[in-house]
Amino acid sequence: MGRGVRVIAVINRKGGCGKSTLVRGLASAAVARGEKVTVFDTDSSQSIYGWMRVARQLGNWDDAVDVMHTYDPAEITARLDAIYAEVPHDHLILIDTFGGASEALDDVVMQSHLIVAPIRPGRGDYTETMETLIWHERLKGRVADPDDVPEYRIVVNGITPEPSATERQALEHIFETMPVIEEPVLERKAYKQVDGEGLLGVIRNKTRMSIVQRHLTNALEEMSVVLDLLDDAIIERMEAV
Ligand SMILES: Nc1ncnc2c1ncn2[C@@H]1O[C@H](COP(=O)(O)OP(=O)(O)OP(=O)(O)O)[C@@H](O)[C@H]1O
Ligand SMILES: [Mg+2]
Predict the structure, then answer these.
(1) Which of the 8 DSSP states describes residue 180?
(2) Residues of the chain with pLDDT under 70
(3) Residue 109 phi, psi dihedral angles, 5° rounding
(4) Three-state SS for 153?
(5) Domains with residue ranges and CATH for the chain
(6) Which atom of ligand 1 is nearest to the CA of 187?
(7) Entry pTM
(8) Closest residue CA from atom 25 of ligand 1
(9) pLDDT for 101-148, tens place per residue?
């Protein structure tokens, strides 16, 4: 069944929690399924735009993925309108933001179907992620209709194979107090490789070494499950409205 056009904004005030990593992973998962992907990179460091340029040079890109670097909500709106005007198709739209972002993002958020925040447990991410959740709650008070504010989901990021007692405790606390999706994202070398080289599926298909290929496949499958869960959250919300 078609998924249509979905807009996901990746937002967390906490720097370095894995926002751009998640955007790269979700873009990879969607394009590997044959979807079109558009990424709006609103970060001055151009983390996604720069990634695309390197990936293109290395031949690790797919033209079904489009990246636009912009700070202008009106520019985002115009591009979204153009996408909505196309014949119906599956299209994942991701908005990458910088750490510390807040009210400046109101306009961008109101054009999304879902807000997603990665969080790394046991690293002091909790407080700032909670602040981001509070910002989201307050946004409902700033708009005409609070029901128009998209829902928020938390993605746990950077889980190690043998978490320490502190990490486990932090994880439990996150699951008890935040709207977390079930699938955690593991700490993986594959995500660093994606960062430096390009789209996950494209790199995987070019890799000869079977062990590296397996690691990349596992990461791609992980991101595919995360994408499914985020899509489920969007569909649930649409059906409820
Ligand atoms: N699951 C992961 N496995 C391995 N490395 C990761 C993972 N998540 C993030 N990283 C690494 O951690 C660093 C910070 O991640 P990233 O750039 O995605 O964070 P960010 O939230 O986008 O930061 P900023 O707020 O500065 O934009 C990067 O070097 C990235 O490769
Ligand atoms: Mg980033």
Answers:
(1) B
(2) 1, 100-103
(3) -65, -40
(4) strand
(5) 5-236 (3.40.50.300)
(6) 3
(7) 0.96
(8) 15
(9) 666 788 889 999 999 999 999 778 899 999 989 999 999 999 999 999
